[in-house]
C-alpha cells in the first residue's frame, strides 16, 4: 500500500456479531466514516472468549500472545490504562470486528451522566462502559496506582441518564 493511500471501512463492512473468518489482515488500521459524516480510525481485531457488545470498551486480552486479541473491559480495568477502543458492532466470542481507536465515536455506553466536554475513563462500576465519575474510586487523594486513572475520551453531548449511548471523542491513539 502506498503512503498516499489509506483503506476506508464502510458501514456495510461493520457486521453485527463479527466476522466468522477474518475478512481483513488482523491488526490493520483503517479510516471509518460514521453515519453523521464524522471520521475515526478503526482497528480490525479478534474478540477473546467472550463477546464484546456494540458501543462497549475493549481492552488488551493478556490471556494470549496475539497482539490483535481484545476482550470486554472489566470493572477491575477501571481507570483505563489497558484501554484499546470502542466496539462499533458486537463482536462475538473468537470472531473478528472493528474497534474505534482514535477520533469520533458516534455511540459509546456511559455508566454515569456527563456534561458536554467532560473527561471520560473506564468505569469501575459497569463493565465495558465509560464514566466521568472519578470520585472515590479514581481520585481519593492517595498517592500510587490505586487512585490512578487515564482519560481516554471526552463526552460530545450531555446524556441525562446512565447506561445510554452517547457520542464521544477519543483522546489519543489506542490501537
| Structural class estimated from helices and strands | mainly beta
Q: Name the beta content range.
A: 25-35%
Largest sheet descriptor: 5 strands, mixed, barrel
In N-to-C order, the SSE pattern is EEEEEEEEEEE
Description:
It is a single chain. The chain has one domain (10-170). The chain has strands at residues 8-9, 29-33, 39-47, 57-60, 69-72, 83-87, 96-110, 119-122, 130-131, 153-155, 164-170. A hairpin with an 8-residue loop joins strand 4 and strand 5. Mean pLDDT is 85; it is low at 135-146. The protein is built from no helices and eleven strands. With 175 residues, the chain is mainly β. It is globular, with a radius of gyration of 16 Å. A five-stranded mixed beta barrel has the order 3-5-4-6-7.
Give the helices and strands, then pairings:
Blueprint: E1 8-9, E2 29-33, E3 39-47, E4 57-60, E5 69-72, E6 83-87, E7 96-110, E8 119-122, E9 130-131, E10 153-155, E11 164-170
Parallel strand pairs: 1-2, 3-5
Antiparallel strand pairs: 2-3, 3-7, 4-5, 4-6, 6-7, 7-11, 8-9, 8-10, 10-11
Q: Main traits of this protein?
A:
175 residues; mainly beta; five-stranded mixed β-barrel; 11 strands
Structure described in brief:
This protein is an all-beta fold and 175 residues long.
Amino acid at each position: 500500500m502506498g503512503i498516499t493511500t489509506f483503506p476506508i471501512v464502510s458501514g456495510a463492512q461493520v457486521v453485527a456479531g463479527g466476522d466468522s473468518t477474518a475478512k481483513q489482515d488482523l491488526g490493520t488500521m483503517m479510516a471509518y466514516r460514521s453515519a453523521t459524516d464524522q471520521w475515526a480510525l478503526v482497528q480490525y481485531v479478534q474478540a477473546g472468549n467472550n463477546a464484546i457488545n456494540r458501543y462497549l470498551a475493549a481492552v488488551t486480552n493478556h490471556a494470549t500472545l496475539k497482539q490483535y486479541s481484545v476482550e470486554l473491559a472489566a470493572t477491575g480495568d477501571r481507570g483505563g490504562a489497558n484501554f484499546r477502543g470502542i466496539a462499533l458492532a458486537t463482536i462475538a466470542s473468537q470472531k473478528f470486528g472493528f474497534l474505534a481507536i482514535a477520533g469520533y465515536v458516534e455511540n459509546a455506553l456511559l455508566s454515569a451522566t456527563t456534561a458536554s466536554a467532560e473527561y471520560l475513563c473506564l468505569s469501575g462500576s459497569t463493565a465495558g462502559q465509560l464514566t466521568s465519575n472519578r470520585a472515590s474510586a479514581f481520585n481519593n487523594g492517595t498517592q500510587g496506582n490505586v487512585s490512578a486513572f487515564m482519560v481516554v475520551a471526552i463526552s460530545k453531548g450531555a446524556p441525562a441518564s446512565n447506561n445510554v449511548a452517547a457520542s464521544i471523542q477519543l483522546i489519543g491513539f489506542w490501537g
